[in-house]
Automatic annotation (TrEMBL):
<dbReference type="InterPro" id="IPR012312">
    <property type="entry name" value="Hemerythrin-like"/>
</dbReference>
<feature type="domain" description="Hemerythrin-like">
    <location>
        <begin position="25"/>
        <end position="160"/>
    </location>
</feature>
<protein>
    <recommendedName>
        <fullName>Hemerythrin-like domain-containing protein</fullName>
    </recommendedName>
</protein>
<dbReference type="Pfam" id="PF01814">
    <property type="entry name" value="Hemerythrin"/>
</dbReference>
<dbReference type="GO" id="GO:0005886">
    <property type="term" value="C:plasma membrane"/>
</dbReference>
Length: 242
């Protein structure tokens, strides 16, 4: 039996990858814009809730939990499906940035756990102490999130275009969206579509079931506009500044 060296095997793997369509990473920008916008606005929305206004606190708390879970699911998908492939297929220089991203995920997860803890405490009474603690936790989370998404766009997305196939990238998105309750999917898509590139939206929906492809371009924006009116007082909240 012929014995193949490690470099030969790696070379064969890269040749095989080059023969198939590679990742279209534009949808990641859309996801990042959603995160930066919603988390950038969140602290002020929390601080604006009057003490004891449990009804308003409940609405805002639901929103914080939703966007926190979107980030958590997004990062869980990268941890499971993206980092291992990049480490396996890339060079030593890839390892440094991937390990930095993994460290960011750990910091974001710690902030996420603090946000979830504080939002639960605040929801019940709408008290000032937990309201301000939640707003502070959201601000800390947002600082790390903005830094992380910027570095990911600068360093990781070009690597994904080089080393990750289109099918693998689609699997990553499916894994991330699996953590979103089905009844929340129109809202989640509407959030992403608010600042999304129409061509990218069309590409993302091309992988969705037929009914979603036909209805989501109309339903998603309407659902988010109605939601934004209740949450922000306007159907057109400020766009992402980061």
């Amino acid at each position: 039996m012929e014995t193949r060296t490690a470099p030969a095997i790696i070379g064969e793997t890269k040749m095989a990858i080059e023969q198939v369509p590679m990742a279209d990473i534009r949808d990641m920008y859309m996801a990042h814009i959603l995160m930066r916008r919603e988390f950038g606005l969140a602290p002020a929305v929390v601080r604006a809730v009057d003490e004891g206004d449990v009804s308003r606190a409940d609405l805002v708390a639901d929103h914080i939990e939703l966007i926190s879970d979107l980030v958590h699911s997004h990062h869980a998908a990268e941890d499971a499906l993206l980092w291992p492939k990049l480490l396996d297929r890339g060079s030593e220089e890839v390892a440094d940035i991937v390990h930095l991203m993994e460290g960011h995920h750990e910091a974001i997860d710690a902030a996420y756990q603090e946000v979830r803890r504080e939002v639960g405490l605040w929801r019940a009474t709408a008290g000032v102490v937990h309201r301000d603690a939640l707003a502070d936790a959201l601000e800390k989370l947002n600082v790390v999130l903005v830094e992380h998404t910027a570095l990911e766009e600068q360093h990781i997305l070009p690597l994904a275009e080089k080393y990750i196939t289109a099918a693998e990238w689609q699997e990553l998105g499916t894994h991330a969206m699996a953590g979103v309750p089905k009844k929340k999917l129109p809202l989640a898509f509407g959030m992403a579509m608010y600042e999304g590139d129409p061509e990218v939206i069309k590409e993302v929906l091309s992988f969705a079931p037929l009914m979603a492809r036909l209805t989501m371009p109309f339903v998603g924006p309407r659902v988010y506009a109605s939601y934004a009116r209740r949450l922000y007082g306007t159907a057109t909240p400020p766009r992402s500044a980061a």
